[in-house]
Amino acid sequence: MLLSRHQVLARRERDPERLERSAYLLLSRIDTQGPMSIGQLSEAFGLDTSTVNRQTAALLRCGLAERVADPDGGMARKLRITAEGGRRLAGDREVNQSCLARVVADWSPEEVGELADVLVRLNRSAEALEGRYWPRPEEHGTRAASHAPAEREPAPRATRGPATPAP
Fold first, then answer.
1. Residues forming a β-bridge with 79
2. Comparing 108 with 3, which gets the higher pLDDT?
3. Rounded distance between C-alpha atoms, residue 40 and residue 42, angstroms
């Protein structure tokens, strides 16, 4: 929690244009899974629809997401990340990764790999307790739907420079 809090506070001081935490999480999920309805986002995060509705309204106002017809032909409108939303999300991910790179700069590639492995296991254990699984494109080659985790595979090891676990 301290590392996460430190990163959030530090990046806002350096760049007030960074995404709010809720925007980062929603955009990350939409980016990973593809267009989603308010109901799907509410279910994915275990939040009340009114909460998600407020959060997504902010994304729409800022031009970070847009409403689109359901690509699968359903009745509900879905939210899709915009080019600006994708650009800002990528920028935030880059900042997060550079912050982590500074934290583990004096760690060996093996130590960074061990941390990444343990973080994957921690996340999957938390997901299993909640029954809400984060879609992972690497498990299916493309955008993935929510599902139970596949067998745990070790995270890739760094080959050059300071490696960082994914944010």
1. 36, 67
2. 108
3. 5
pLDDT digits (tens, 9 = 90+) for 15-50: 767 888 899 999 999 999 999 999 999 999 999 999
Predicted local distance difference test score (pLDDT) of residue 10? 59
Query: For the residues of 94-150, what is the DSSP string, one character each?
Result: HHHHHHHHHHTTTS-HHHHHHHHHHHHHHHHHHHHHHT-PPP-HHHHSS---S----
Write out the two tokens for 80. Answer: 């899709």
Q: What is the DSSP string of 35-60?
A: SB-HHHHHHHHT--HHHHHHHHHHHH
Q: Which residues of 118-152 are buried (b: 16+ CB within 10 A; e: fewer)?
A: eebeeebeeeeeeeebbbeeeeeeeebeeeebeee
Find the length of the chain: 167
What 8-state DSSP symbol labels residue 151?
S
Residue 97 pLDDT > 70, yes or no?
yes
